[in-house]
Amino acid sequence: MDNQGEITVNQRLPGVIMEKLKRAGKFCQILKKIIPHINPSLPFISFLCIFSLGCLNRTRFNNFNWQMDSLRYYTTRIDSILNQHSKEIAQLRTDYYTKSEEIAEKLEMLNTRLSESEAQLTQIIERLSRGKKAITDSEDVSSVSPEARMIYESAYLNYVKGNYNEAVNGFKSYLKVAPESPLSDNALYWIGECYYSLGKRQDAVDTFNELLNKYPQSNKRPTALYKIGIIYEEAKDKNTAKTYFERVVKEFPNAPEASLAKERLNK
């Protein structure tokens, strides 16, 4: 019995083994069909993707830092440029106001001279209308010698040309040759005008005052008074200037200079 059972088992073993081998063979065949469709580089690609994600984040981080550094640099640069421009604008503003004041002063001086020229022109027109000799600016020059008259006219011509030093010398020469002539007060007045044009304000004031004291009947008195007022006004001495302007208005109310003096007083 025992031998028969052993034989039966032994006979059955090869069949079991063969069945399992068959099943294993089928599994291997299935694997053979699947394996060709699997990309052998898939694990590497997966690793590369994971690595790239890390690198990408690092690259973005580095780019962000670089952009921040650039932003800081350009911000600092712009601040520096703005500060420099602010300083330049402040300097330009200062220069502008300084130049504006200088221009205003020069315009005031030009306006004064224009007003004076207008007054003198009005005076000449009045004399022409009365048949007087405007060129010599005198009531009667018949007593003036030809030599003295030539000196006077030459000096006046230098004044008109702007040769003020030569004009001063010429008028002084005339006063030496004809100290008590009808043109003496005019010569003294033009000397004062020359000093004023040369910027010698005190010499001009002294000369005009000499004319006022020496020639009380001179037709140049209102102009001399007004001119002294202008000089003091330019020197910022408003009180003294006011005194002379008031004298013009009071002593010579009908003179052209009186209207100019009133304008100064009403400022």
TrEMBL record:
<dbReference type="InterPro" id="IPR014162">
    <property type="entry name" value="CpoB_C"/>
</dbReference>
<protein>
    <submittedName>
        <fullName>Tol-pal system protein YbgF</fullName>
    </submittedName>
</protein>
<keyword id="KW-0175">Coiled coil</keyword>
<keyword id="KW-0802">TPR repeat</keyword>
<feature type="coiled-coil region">
    <location>
        <begin position="100"/>
        <end position="127"/>
    </location>
</feature>
<feature type="repeat" description="TPR">
    <location>
        <begin position="185"/>
        <end position="218"/>
    </location>
</feature>
<feature type="repeat" description="TPR">
    <location>
        <begin position="148"/>
        <end position="181"/>
    </location>
</feature>
<dbReference type="Pfam" id="PF13174">
    <property type="entry name" value="TPR_6"/>
</dbReference>
<dbReference type="InterPro" id="IPR011990">
    <property type="entry name" value="TPR-like_helical_dom_sf"/>
</dbReference>
<feature type="repeat" description="TPR">
    <location>
        <begin position="222"/>
        <end position="255"/>
    </location>
</feature>
<dbReference type="InterPro" id="IPR019734">
    <property type="entry name" value="TPR_rpt"/>
</dbReference>
